[in-house]
Amino acid sequence: MVARRSRKAVNYAETKAADDAKFDALHDVGADEISSDDDEPRPAKKTPTRQRKRRAVAVLPAMPGDTTLLNAVRSESAAITVAAKDWVDRFTADRADATAEVLTFLLQACGITSHTVTAEDAEHTGADEIKQEADAIAQGDGLDELLGGRSAAVRHLKASYREMWDKLIREAANAGLLRGGFFLDKATNLIIALNTSVVRELRKVATITAAQVATSLLHVVVTLQDARDTAAGQAAAEEAKKSLRFRDIDSEIRLAVVQGVGHWMQLVPATFLTPGYLKYIAWAVSDKDAQVRLEAASTLCTLYSIPSNATQLKDFTDRFAVRFQELMDDREDLVAVAGVKLVTQLVRLGHLPATVGSDVVRLMSDASSGLRAAAADLAAGMLKDLGKEALEAAAKRNGGTKKTGAGGRKAGKSKVNAATSSGNQHSEEECELAGVLRVLRMLAAEGAGLAGPTAELDAPALGEDSIALVVGSLATRASALRNWQLMVEWLKSDTAVDVFGEEATSDLLFCLLYALRCASGSTAAVIPPVRGAARDKQAAARAKARQEATLALRDDLQSLITKFQAEPAQVATVIALIPELKLEVFSLRAEEKKLSSLLAVVKNIFFKHSEIRAINACSDALVTCARTGPDTTKDAARAVLSEVVSTTVAAVNKAAVQLESTGHRTLSAATAAYRESNGEKESAALYAARAATRRAQSISEVYPEGFATDPSGQEGLSRILELAAAGADMPAAVLGCAGAAAFFTLMYTMATLDEENPDLAALGQLVAAQATLASQLEAIGNEAEKRGRSARDVAHAIASVQADFMNVFSAKILPEALKEAAYRPSDTAVNALWKGLEAGILPGTPGSAIEGNSGGNDDIDAENSKVLIPGSENLSAPAEIVARLAASGGIPQYRQLAAQLLSYWESSHAPSVSNVAKEVVRHLKRVDPTHLPSIYLAAMQASYMRFKTAADSAFESGNFSTEELAEKEEELFQPFLDLSAKIAASQAGFNAPASTLVYIAEEGAKWALTSAPPQSIDFLQGASYFMVRVKGSAAAKVLAAVEAVGNAAGAPERPDEDDEEEAQAWSEWDLYYQYCDALRDQAVKPTGGAKSRKPAGGAAAATAGAAVGASGGKKSGAKAGGRRISFAPGAGGGNSEEEEEEEDEAQPAPRSSGGKKKASKPAAATKKGEKGAGSSKPLKLSDSEDEEGGEGEEEDAGMADAQEQQEEGEDFSEPEEDVEVMPTEEQLPGMRGGAGGRRSSQQALEESESESDSESEDEKPAFAARRARKR
Question: CA–CA distance from 980 to each of 131, 940, 947 (Å)?
Fold first, then answer.
């Protein structure tokens, strides 16, 4: 498996006393601190309630004839230099007018284009007054943002803006204009004033300007020799530093600060490379914004790369070493890569112990190529030491003699012990190769959870995928992985076994295979991409490496195959080396006979083993040699391949005859015994059929012309399938391979036809063969469905073949001349197809190909599943098959399949299936948005019907008491609620159409009320997730439609509260009336206008809570898309000096052509990590953030709310967008109460009467009891 970084939470809420005491005791921070005010908590500023208008960011081109500084910024770089020199001339003529021009330029960069600073303002008006006027303009007229956003054009403009300030400062210094202080005083005072603005954009531009001004002044300080100029520059730099905001709420401001301070540390380390500044960089490593963390980590890497800084940074490293190491587990790949590079530097400097490298080793099998490369840089330097330790330990452990292992190896001197006993030292490449193998053993031990001195020896074999990633990372960094002769020698002498145990043989074989693939370029190693001449050089190097490997391996491959022929997995790896060889070498050296002899051994292995991996390796090697290389080697390979095909065809026909003569009853009994014994008890007829069909499938997949040109081979496959279609029960290992082989042959036949003018006779034969295979597959699927659970593996195997069959022979993709051969499946066939593939998705079922499969495999082994399911190394293979059909639209029923797949979108037992469903949703949004609402509703209905079926089975089993049955049904009902919340959240953004919500809220309620009410009325709980944005007239329309259907379905009138009999009769419909009450509340809500961001309380919450109960919806604690470690401030830690400044601010009102403001919903009131099902309060209809609800705009007040919640100790790993989203389980119009039970009707009535916000925690679930009474 591919390794993943740890996902545990990291608490960075260190107490200031404990954190600073150790560090500050070593240093007198004093003057190094930026400002004493920065270390004290500052009260939150009062935020004006009026919202500020924000115009869209637009980078305008330079205007001809415009001589302003802003126009120069929009021009080429040369214009900036000219503009700065011209400004100096104007300053010499009139300092007030020129200074006013610079101040106006600053305001224009902030987005204030309607105000110009005059010369009189520059002379007499204070900076605070100018700032106040800027605030008023921003909140009234809005801003024309210039530097907002992160597009390429804006980044270029920011760079030009910084360059302009740099040129102004330097040109002014050269002209001696800094001595008077007038220009610097006015500029820095306004910059500092703007940094105190409540408008975020003003603070942002002021911070960028301050960082650049300070940097430019430091350059002046370093270069100028005049003491007066130096003093003036230092004073101005100190003033500019005061305007920096290390803890601003805006991430771009914090990013600019980190960039500026990092630059200063490099320019003047004596002043800035001090504890007072360094700690801010270290705290930025824990920032909640990934860009800030990345910049901080990159800055530290730069600082540590300067040799003169090493000693000065030692104490700093000791304080923050733990945080630096945790960077390697950051949830963002780029930050994690920077963290690995930082740790690598610290290890090389001796600031961290070498043992830290073992933590880096585990990242070498990570899914991120950048992270693997960074980890390999450190691990490569450790390989020789690791290998030397392993070789010495093996010499002591083995005592100078080889042990007799499972393979019967004789006792005697091993290569390792021989070198040690003779006093010879192992070569560097031997140590390096041993180091690579030890890395693999370490990863295997970690994956198996083993620890201790013998963990590496006891660990099982490491997965092939992980080995491929590790070798790909080290291929260009370890020369031992290009020493082919050394690796072959170790395989022949069992040196790897002596050092690391029996499993090391498989590790070394995979190392050899993937090292060869990386060297020859067939598998990409982790190396930077190259272009031009470098690419040609790289291609030549790869060709040379391939030739060297061929020369080194050609004499030993046959002996290696013979050595490992008893182990199918190992011999398959050896045979897989053959397609990587340069076959021209055999021709140039006149060694065609040697190649023929080698392929003859491969042919023997092909018929010796029935394991699919060995069979596939042999067929790949034979077909590759028959199709590539010089003609002399092709002829030799084709002769062997022809023998293999003819022998396989004969074996298939013989197996078909043997199965037919066995009889249905005997065959069914043998199949049942095979399944019960998990393949241990296999009759001779079944073994012959399984081996023959597997070989046929393997050959026909890579060499379909072999079977296509031999009618007897097609006939044998068809006879086996026809026997199963007639009712004979056979294992999936036989039927799946036979079906796949027949399909590959048929597909090749179609590919040989002319697309424009096909041969009519050949087309007729193709149509007949297609119809025969289609009917056989459908019949086998129907027979498997009749047998039920015992034949689920057969249904799954056949469905996998059918799915590819439907895609290839789809009328949508076939050319017009071949439309006659199109396959148009019936609804029954498509339904059977889904049920067969669903067998691979359901947990604990035979053939299940998803995580958490606890049921084992009763009939189809893990190896064979890779044959039946293309790409089945991916655990979501069944879902991917359905996804391909749904996405291609190749059959008319593709929407039906899409809905069935989406019903597993929020499947807790199959997260990889959920990811596939998510991709299908994205695709359908692009190609079929019109039908997406109906697909969503069908998915919810499918999920609900699964619940009903499972709940009925639980009830009919009689194995549960009333309370146990209630708990069981609650557990079964939760996936339906989770799916409903997921779909609703995907439609939560401002850009999402409300029509989808209206459709599901209305049509879902109608379906619940017309599908045997009130038994299916529970469906309304899922439909209730879609009511949040259904307001006003839309909600009134839905309410009218729902009530009409309810009345037609016989909904009773609301009972008299004193009449218990009426209340009992009405209890079956209580959810219906709660649903109507919630719609009625929504109908009186406005559909637009500004709304408060604070969670509603008081009467509003009570009214909504009276209409519906506590939620049982989706867990709000689940982090959207989260993985690995989050570098957010720790929960419960409160605010500390490290955290960002918490402050409210004025908000820009978005400006549109209509002049309307976008309305926002109340922010989520649920804390992360809490479960709504455990809430004792019914909450109002509200909004929360979900991973699919990110289509809305991010607004500033949403961040302010997040900061307020963070101040209360909550863990915010990412900035939360304030968008309209669906309710979490605490916010759902709850129809599920307490800690997992459904509210009784009497309780709903009492809450409706009293508008109470509480609910009895010890209430027993009522809905299961009602179900039991009905039965």
Answer: 50, 7, 13
